[in-house]
Amino acid sequence: MRSSVxxxxxxxxxxxxxxxGGLGAASKFARKLPQNSVAIIEPSERHYYQPGFTFVGAGExxxxxxxxxxxxxxxxxxxxxxxxxKRLVPENNSVILDNGDTLTYDYLVIAxxxxxxFDLIKGAPEALQLEGSGVCxxxxxxxxxxxxxxxxxxxxxxxxxxFPAGPxxxxxxxxxxxxxxxxxxxxxxxxDAAKIDYYTSLPKIFGVEKYAQALDKVVKAKDxxxxxxxxxxxxxxxxxxAIFDVYNAEGKPSGETIESKFTLLHVAPVCRPIATVSExxxxxxxxxxxxxxxxxxxxxxxxxxxxxxxxxxxPNAKTAAAVSGQLGTLEVNLKxxxxxxxxxSKYDGYASCPLLVGGNKVILAEFTPKGPLxxxxxxxxxxxxxxxLLKRYIMQPLYWHGLVKGYWNGPTTIRKILHFGRSx
Length: 424
Description:
Elements: E1 10-16, H1 20-30, E2 38-41, E3 46-48, H2 53-57, E4 67-69, H3 70-73, E5 79-81, E6 85-89, E7 94-97, E8 102-110, E9 114-116, H4 124-129, E10 135-136, H5 141-153, E11 157-163, H6 173-188, E12 194-200, H7 209-221, E13 224-227, E14 230-236, E15 241-247, E16 253-261, E17 264-266, E18 271-273, H8 275-278, E19 305-307, H9 320-338, E20 351-358, E21 361-368, E22 371-372, H10 385-403, H11 412-418
């Protein structure tokens, strides 16, 4: 076992956060810089493959199948501070740890991710904690397991699935678990006794029009009712009621509310940066995300600070696939900054969301803020078994052996080959 007691010192490169982005960056630069030049701050001893939580919720994978020991993922050349970062002080090139110690750096990569905020929904924390409440979520490890138990216990009534207003990890996940629950209900013979509703803050079922059109067909075929521009605000467990704000065309609460009874309620929470990040006013935007150039990933104020993954205010969807694309840009630009050269790489906003729609088929959504950017030379909005095989059996090994090891920078090269050099 690696000791968690280390000599506090100055780091050439300090990384805050040991998730996908932090580990990927640490792995890349551990291969470029001398021993102990790179340090990572991460208090967690377990690392989860979060895209697998959908399969955990559906009972197709165990939680243990989606986790690794953090120490096994951190390169041996990297110093590991098994602490939480309490305060970022970019003006002094330093980070204060939760034990009061201070680390200094030449360059900083912020990769803290975002956290689900169930506390912003009245009654949600209590309902999620109570076994058999019917309230569940795949957005935390133990709750993903609870989701499976609640879906299995469902016999009849209203099954409600929600999508919040604001940033969220993997915007397709609330739909994925809904389609898999529908499939489970059918296999168990209780689908005819179930009414499934999807409440979303969006004006349509998905943010990218091409995939929204395909998903509209899915919900109609499955007899799922879509409620657009609605946001869960309260759970009343004593009456098994979910209270929704109705939003107007400007994306603001209209003052009208909807009350809906439920037997099963899956909660997808809005996600926010951790307090350590959001409280550093010199680094963040008004929403508390690290303010970076969306193409170079460099801080707009501090040239020796970069951010990667969900904690950055880049306009892409917040997915592991987005991290892969950002890692390639970070590698080039951070190396250039260290050598006093211009930043030469631009992140294009790529993200991917493999939408499980049941029947061992997936709509393989790949896109940027400008629209679809697909890798395969076929229409990926069509549900396909081959896309399911990629999601179920390829993407997790690619994550463990490619992404967090700093070898996988997304499918750009593969896309160019399959499209004969064209971007799409």
